[in-house]
Amino acid sequence: MVWAEVTSPKEFAELIERIAKTCDVIAAVATDCLQVSTAVAEAKARGVATFSLLSDFAQDVRAGYFGANNLKVGRSAAWMIANTAKRVGKVGLFVGGSRWHGHALRETGFRSYFREHAPQFQVIESVTNLETRKLTYEAAGEDMSVVVNEIMPETISGMAEGLVTAVQVTPLDDICRNLIVSMSGSVIEKTFEKPGQVFYISENI
Predict the structure, then answer these.
(1) Rounded to an integer, what distance in angstroms lies between the CA atom of residue 48 and that of residue 39?
(2) Looking at domain 9-67+171-204, which of 2.60.320.10, 3.30.70.980, 3.40.20.10, 3.40.50.2300 is its CATH number?
(3) Residue-wise pLDDT tens digits, 28-47
(4) For 14-66, what is the HEC assignment?
(5) Which is nearest to 106 in space by CA: 159, 156, 170?
(6) What was the pLDDT predicted at 155?
(7) 78 near 122, Cβ under 8 Å?
């Protein structure tokens, strides 16, 4: 397992290129950009399949995507806020960065729900929190309906204190189990020529 240090497109691409020289198959979380797509295409040319995990990338050349239907995740979060907010007002959305395909889809779903079903709310410009809790806390106010992702000590504490309305949890056990099966198949049977997707959402698990 290799961790990216600065999560730049160049670093992701270089890591995929390096790993492809020593591995039979790759699963990665990376941003969606030309450099990463090129690295995945080169790995495929060497016979090494790449699976995108949690946030999709290189859709035309990767072997498959394993993660949530991020469009529906965004719409679900919007539904929760629209139906639990104590009053009509401004709605904010925090994203980790503009290059993450999963984040972009969640924002699209989030905004589309409010536009279609709760236009009385004002969805303001998204805020990039760079995946740091400190900046998120500083930008947040009080007396809000808050929907967050993943169960962790902070979100559990937030729910216990009534600060967090709901938590959307990624079914990592199921995702990883099916990912390993597909990765093994790509090596044994070379069944990765056609890109595919596997979606996991709360409604179908």
Answers:
(1) 11
(2) 3.40.50.2300
(3) 999 999 999 999 999 999 99
(4) HHHHHHHCCCCEEEECCCCCHHHHHHHHHHHHCCCEEEEECCCCCCCCCCEEE
(5) 170
(6) 83
(7) no
